[in-house]
Amino acid sequence: xxxxxALAAALDLADGYxxxxxxADASDTLRRIPKxxxxxxxxxxxxxxxxxGMEQWxxxxxxxxxxxxxxxxxxxLWYRLAVIEAGDGDxxxxxxxxxxxxxxxxDGRFDVANDEALKDIW
Length: 122
Fold this sequence. Notes:
Blueprint: H1 2-19, H2 23-31, H3 41-53, H4 57-70, H5 75-87, H6 91-104
Helix pairs in contact: 1-2, 1-3, 2-3, 3-4, 3-5, 4-5, 5-6
């Protein structure tokens, strides 16, 4: 039980850094998470935000593609892949990721049509 609280605390700390656009500090926080939690989808999501913020498209794409294979029903991971693909200028791949995001977005939380990060794919 204590490990889950430690993970939640690390994710909260990383979220604070991400809000402040302190990409390196967020990355360092995520790197300190115990190895057995690093493939947790919430950790992967934060790592993808870091890659996007640092414009590390190749690393972000590699991680996002792996994450969407492991967690195909996580709309947030498909969304992150779409943003990374769009940021790197691959609009066809971004559109494909958007399709998966919409299919997995069962609660309608992602408004991809009006998302600033995806505006160039339309």
